[in-house]
């Protein structure tokens, strides 16, 4: 009996022991929207062996009308009971791989895209570990960004009225087998952060999808609204998803070198160089919405320029301080993504950019010694410090020419994403905003 058979048996046994009556089969479209449908426990055994057919033509980025038949094949290792549903006639969930009717992987499935990127790393002997730090706001409702508190960074005062929401979110995640490392109030009013404990990228991408749903479910039960919108408040910090990442060879951290001043190996330096060189090309994956680029401006602890440094929080890549005896924790923190990204595609894009640096032996990039946001344009030009794209339009134009992103996503997903983002930009470009009405209507 193989591991998958063991996992199937565990699922069937757990469903029976926990009075599970409904199982939600989850997957994502290319934008990272959580999709799914429910089956009854009577269908569970058949679903685990043969999958469940569904119509993919209505799923954004999944199929043309003549390619609508798809199969959701549950991954039994992702079985978890939903704690917010009743215990009697309980509800569970499993993430699915999307297959074609003949059983072959559907190349537009984001989970498959990430698996392909992980296979590329595996051929080089690496496993990819990630630990995202995800920020979100709690507002009174979804109609306007009205904060619940006036708290600030790490506040533990009565101003932080959302402590109970964070606590319940953490407990719910842990009950679902998703370990949490930290949770705290962030810098902006009513902004909060929960950091998941690092693990392999595929497990983490599933966990990110679950996390976003849990945060919103808990807030809704308490009469509040949680949003991951990158920049809901113009005068406050936006929501980021800083991704701590490292490569391992077996049990050894391939990013660690005791002789380096930053404790980073040559592999890590080349990985950093790959991320820095290709960051503009993967921006439309890491930052896929028009609003994403309102966050990537100087002055709000979000990266706007392409640089790296130890500790400094204004750079694109930060290297957390080394703790003696903790070689396995040496990592880099990539600060570009926001929490509304598709985690499968984002992890695949970041990994592919870093591997480009390793495989092609990119020259290490010297770290910044001063705050890049305090430099003049001339100083940045002299240091050849480029900027991240300033808009979704610019990001898409750069992505269209990127062979790195094309290889990372595969031809099908690459074309679908570019097409979708062009439509997104055209809709925004033709919209008349509140800013324009307030600025121009009374004077023009």
Low-pLDDT regions:
none
Assign the CATH class of the largest domain: Alpha Beta
Number of domains: 2
The proportion of strand residues reads 15-25%
Structural class by secondary-structure content: alpha+beta
Q: What integer is the average pLDDT?
A: 89
Question: Architecture of the largest domain, CATH level 2?
Answer: 2-Layer Sandwich
Task: Name the quaternary structure.
Answer: single chain
Basic shape? globular
Main β-sheet: number of strands, strand sense, barrel status? 10 strands, mixed
Order of helices and strands: HEEHEEEEHEHEEEHEEEHHHEEEHHHHHH
Classify the helix fraction into a percent range.
25-40%
- Radius of gyration of CA atoms, rounded to a whole number: 22 Å
Number of strands: 16
- How far the N terminus sits from the C terminus, by CA atoms, comes to 75 Å
User: What is the tally of helical segments?
Assistant: 14
Instruction: Find the CATH superfamily of the largest domain.
Output: Glutamine synthetase/guanido kinase, catalytic domain
CATH topology of the largest domain: Creatine Kinase, Chain A, domain 2
Task: Reconstruct the topology from this structure.
Elements: H1 3-17, E1 20-28, E2 34-40, H2 44-50, E3 52-55, E4 69-74, E5 80-81, E6 90-99, H3 110-123, E7 127-139, H4 163-175, E8 180-185, E9 191-196, E10 199-200, H5 201-221, E11 225-227, E12 241-249, E13 252-253, H6 266-278, H7 283-286, H8 292-295, E14 308-310, E15 317-319, E16 332-334, H9 343-359, H10 377-382, H11 392-400, H12 403-409, H13 411-430, H14 434-440
Helix pairs in contact: 3-9, 4-5, 6-9, 9-12, 11-13, 12-13
């Amino acid at each position: 009996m193989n591991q998958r058979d063991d996992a199937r048996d565990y699922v069937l046994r757990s469903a029976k022991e926990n009075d599970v009556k409904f199982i939600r089969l989850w997957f994502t479209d290319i934008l990272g929207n959580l999709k799914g449908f429910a089956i009854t426990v009577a269908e569970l055994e058949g679903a685990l062996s043969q999958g469940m057919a569904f119509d993919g033509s209505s799923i954004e980025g999944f199929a043309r009308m003549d390619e609508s038949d798809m199969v959701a094949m549950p991954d039994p290792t992702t079985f978890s009971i939903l704690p917010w549903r009743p215990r009697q006639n309980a509800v569970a969930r499993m993430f699915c791989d999307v297959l074609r009717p003949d059983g072959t992987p559907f190349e537009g499935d984001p989970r498959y895209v990430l698996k392909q990127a992980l296979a590329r790393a595996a051929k080089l002997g690496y496993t990819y570990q990630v630990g995202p730090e995800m920020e979100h706001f709690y507002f009174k409702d979804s109609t306007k960004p009205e904060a619940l508190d006036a708290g600030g960074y790490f506040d533990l005062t009565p101003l932080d009225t959302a402590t109970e929401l964070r606590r319940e979110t953490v407990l719910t995640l842990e009950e679902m087998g998703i370990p949490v490392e930290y949770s705290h109030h962030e810098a902006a009013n009513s902004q909060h952060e929960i950091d998941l404990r690092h693990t392999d990228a595929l497990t983490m991408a599933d966990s990110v999808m679950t996390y976003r749903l849990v945060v919103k479910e808990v807030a809704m039960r308490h009469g509040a609204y949680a949003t991951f919108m990158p920049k809901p408040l113009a005068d406050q910090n936006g929501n980021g998803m800083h991704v701590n990442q490292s490569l391992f060879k077996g049990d050894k951290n391939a990013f660690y070198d005791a002789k380096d001043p930053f404790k980073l190996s040559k592999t890590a330096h080349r990985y950093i160089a790959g991320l820095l060189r290709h960051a503009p090309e993967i921006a439309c994956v890491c930052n896929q919405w028009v609003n994403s680029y309102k966050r990537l401006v100087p002055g709000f602890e979000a990266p706007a320029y392409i640089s790296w440094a130890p500790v400094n929080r204004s750079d694109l890549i930060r290297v957390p301080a080394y703790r003696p005896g903790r070689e396995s924790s040496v990592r880099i923190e990539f600060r570009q993504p926001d929490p509304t990204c598709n985690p499968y595609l984002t992890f695949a894009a970041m990994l592919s950019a870093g591997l480009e640096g390793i495989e092609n032996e990119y020259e290490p990039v010297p770290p910044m010694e001063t705050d890049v946001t305090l430099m003049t344009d001339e100083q940045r030009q002299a240091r050849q410090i480029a900027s991240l794209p300033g808009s979704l339009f610019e990001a898409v134009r750069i992505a269209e020419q990127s062979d790195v992103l094309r290889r990372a996503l595969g031809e099908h997903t690459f074309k679908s994403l570019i097409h979708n983002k062009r439509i997104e930009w055209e809709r925004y470009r033709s919209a008349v905003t509140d800013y324009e009405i307030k600025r121009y209507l009374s004077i023009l």
